[in-house]
Sequence to fold (556 residues):
Amino acid sequence: MENIYLIFIVLLAAFLGFELIRKVPATLHTPLMSGSNAISGITLVGALAASGMENDILTTILGTAAVALASINVVGGYLVTDRMLGMFKKKDKK
Amino acid sequence: MESVALIINLAYVLAAGLFILGLKLLSHPLTARKGNMVSAVGMLVAVVVTLLDHQIISYHWILLGFAIGGAYGAWKAKSVEMTQMPEMVSLFNGYGGLASLLLGWATVSQLSTVGFSGATSFVLITVILTLLIGGVTFSGSVIAWGKLSGRMNAKAVIFTGLRELSVLHLVGFFVVGYLFVTDPMNPVWLYATIALALSFGILATISIGGADMPVVIALLNSYSGVAASAAGLAVGNTILIVTGLLVGASGLILTNIMCKAMNRSLMNVLLSGFAKPVEAAEKIEGEVKIMAAQDAFYVLEAAQAVLVIPGYGMAVAQAQHAVRELQTLLEENGCTVEYAIHPVAGRMPGHMNVLLAEADVPYDQLCEMDDVNPRMENYDVAIVIGANDVVNPAAKEMKGSPIYGMPVIEAYRAKTVFVLKRSANAGFAGVDNPLFFKDNTRMVLGDAKDTINTIIREFGDD
Fold:
């Protein structure tokens, strides 16, 4: 039952994603991609458990490496997207 | 459900809501920056509440990983040039894929310490999927990064047996995957899965040429999200599943937009390395008319409406700031200036928009192709800077052309067209762009940045 419930979530999330992103204008496609990089860093949440649960040494090393890589995406992704979006300006009304 | 688990799950629902709201705000330039912040807050909520989990008992490894990754990510975000965004996004796609792969591996390693007790085949199958998608994303992104950054030849690498080798990989996945699920204690199947995934990622990307890179980056972006989602299924974490799929959907939509803009199917792009080269199209007849930059100035001085059509060449020549300066001069002269941006201009979706935004061009002057084409006759001058295929009339006129049917910016319908191009070498014999031969087209030869600066100086002398 648990697995069916997970697959149900998969289905709903996929549809929601399509509906949301379809409305993003072409002008913002690059920030959308770097922002997606940041969001895909959510792997960090899964990696925290593997890194901090006092497992055997191999699991801890793999988990810590995953934490580091996902952190690159989270920190770098959000910062670069913010930097980029700060450049988009509307025409001054003179 | 115990209270800690309940709090964590409620916080995950909140985080997912914030991600969704953030993406919704990203659909307009005015609110996009706020959307990114909202999404970042969602991430913070998800991470902080996960750390509350009482199963996590040591924090020093977590801190070490976060410090290293965070510092590198922040440095990269601050130092990257906007022209290099395609490489950076590609590299980050790869990091995302590798993080998911390692998480999948860590899950196996953790399960092996307890003799895989409680590991259902659902868990094992999702682990396999995580390793597979994560591995393909990682190695594919590294190749894409190499091609985009010029560390590798951007040409498609094709050799005999490529197709057979790819099919062999697919068969291999099923065999090794089955063996892993039935015999998870044997680490050979784990390593074989990872090795197959990495080699398949390389195989799938080296055969794709530089001009198709926007499609590849968008697709790998999608994969990096799907990999996170698969990892979420493997470790049973709903926030990973939902969030990963939002990214997966986003990448897939962009991929689809890019393919449509090239009038090709995704399969056609992915398998382009296998296709026979297209037969030479009809001969283009006519004469190329060359104009000096100084003379181009007189035409621009008299123009009322100018359209700028940028392409990857503008990024290479770093001409965007000079273009912006020219725009100011033209506007002071009473002329309107607009930019027409083709969906596949540049090396990633929206690349030109970011470069022009960096040069202070207001986003409401950046127009989409379908918006500009019906009004093309109204423009006195269309300036094509470093673009080629996206303004090629062969897409409409020449049935034999490899790009026939692709939607293009119909620059040739403007009253005058300036094509800024590096040189007229090779007598244009090999050039298959009939735009260069049109009666209303003038070629302005030289480095695009120098050409525009020359025109700017003429305005100053006036």
Summary: Residues 27-85 of chain A form one domain. Chain A has a mean pLDDT of 89.
